[in-house]
């Protein structure tokens, strides 16, 4: 059985990072028990903050503006950091630092597909942002990320100038919204079933089981 999963995600979304880890655990478990099965994952763009300036802005100011008081933001970030730790992720002080505009990052993740490095680059962006507190608006950090997964750093400027690719990213994000994607993470299995949110590993396994039973029916 081959299963396709489209993931609508944003690399500044903590639940997307948590959901990525949980889905990976589910895939590893399923493929380990079903060696003939193949699960193919592709990443789809969704910007949590599409109206941010291209250079981004201060993260704490952004979070307070979006969610209200600083106390509320601190409580929210502590809660998500605690949950992330349960999934083996260490978040740095995610209130500090820089909030990037992620449009270019989505385009780079798509370009990385040409090198078979789509998921790997998304992982590095997540890691740099949440675990290392790096500024993903900084070209040097982006180039470092590309090099880390084996994508030529020249792709940064090439993607910036690639109007068809940038238009494709806009189109795909709009298509997601037409499908009902209003928040992320959002997963579509075999263009048939949708799952929203960073669900437990067991729920993903239940979806795989349902798809398998339907394939054998």
UniProtKB/TrEMBL annotation:
DSBA-like thioredoxin domain ranges (all copies): 5-206
PANTHER family from the UniProt entry: GLUTATHIONE S-TRANSFERASE KAPPA, THIOREDOXIN SUPERFAMILY PROTEIN
Domain of life per record: Bacteria
Protein name: Polyketide synthase
Lineage start: Bacteria, Pseudomonadati, Spirochaetota, Spirochaetia, Leptospirales
InterPro entries cross-referenced by the UniProt entry: DSBA-like_thioredoxin_dom, Thioredoxin-like_sf
Gene, per the UniProt record: frnE
Native species: Leptospira johnsonii
GO MF annotations, alphabetized: oxidoreductase activity
